[in-house]
Design brief:
- The protein is α/β, with parallel strands linked by helices and about 240 residues long.
- The protein has a domain of about 160 residues: 3-Layer(aba) Sandwich (Rossmann fold), CATH 3.40.50.
- Helices cover about 35% and strands about 25% of the residues.
- The radius of gyration is 18 Å and the shape is globular.
- The chain starts with a strand and ends in a 6-residue tail after the last helix.
């Protein structure tokens, strides 16, 4: 389990995050949402390791990782998928995944190939295994990025704007992938501006406003919260 407590961040004289905390367990999908300027991106980046917290703690399975750089968190099982495309455009899908498998000390050459084929099959990428990253559709690219993340055997995966800039068919595809990660026992944290799509697959969500948690709970509890509707969703919003 990942537990963040009392996180704070100030830029110059402006405190953008005030006493933020969340929990993320294995096999759980959690959303981190809020209006523009609420501080959700800063909170997300502090958990990823891209931004250093001014105060507070981040603990993973009892180990304090607050001061650990991003690559150390990755070794401890915290996977991260950025919003921007991260596939290597001039490498094939298979070679994109092999890059991560080469770092696995628990696998020999034959084991890496078995794991590669398993991931290609699991993410339905076998038919594009030999295609270059530059030729992939939005959905195929995301599946390749997920496969590459899974190659590192993460316990948690943090998804930054996974629904940004993808067509409706790909949205459904990404939702199915997130459900698959959950079934695999991986904890998933999502931050996204597409509220309906995110709440539609979350077990729980945190709503931020002005740097603090305004509300947290199940999607149903979030929708029933008058403050959330006033500040963020509006009265007419429905899932």
């Amino acid at each position: 389990m990942l537990v963040a407590q009392g996180l704070r961040k100030k830029y110059k004289q402006r405190e953008v995050v005030k006493d933020f905390g969340l929990t993320l367990d294995a096999g759980e999908v959690v959303g981190l949402l809020g209006p523009n300027g609420a501080g959700k991106t800063t909170c997300f980046y502090m958990i990823v390791g891209l931004v250093a917290a001014d105060a507070g703690s981040i603990v993973l399975d009892g180990k304090d990782i607050t001061g650990d750089p991003m690559y150390t968190r990755a070794k401890q099982g915290v996977g991260y998928l950025p919003q921007e495309p991260s596939v290597f455009r001039k490498l094939t899908v298979a070679d994109n995944i092999r890059l991560v498998l080469e770092l696995r000390e628990d696998l020999d050459s034959a084991g890496r190939e078995r794991e590669l084929n398993s991931l290609l099959d699991e993410l339905q990428l076998g038919h594009v295994a030999d295609q270059l990253g530059a030729s992939l559709s939005g959905g195929e690219r995301r599946r390749c990025e997920i496969a590459r993340a899974l190659a590192a055997q993460p316990r948690l995966i943090l998804l930054d704007e996974p629904f940004a800039g993808v067509d409706p068919i790909s949205v459904g595809e990404i939702q199915r992938i997130v459900t698959h990660l959950k079934q695999r026992g991986i904890g998933v944290l999502i931050t996204d501006h597409n509220v309906r799509e995110t709440l539609g697959i979350c077990d729980r969500a945190y709503i931020l406003a002005e740097g603090s948690v305004l509300a947290q709970g199940s999607p149903e509890a979030i929708l029933d919260n008058a403050d959330v509707r006033r500040v963020y969703l509006g009265d007419s919003f429905k899932l």
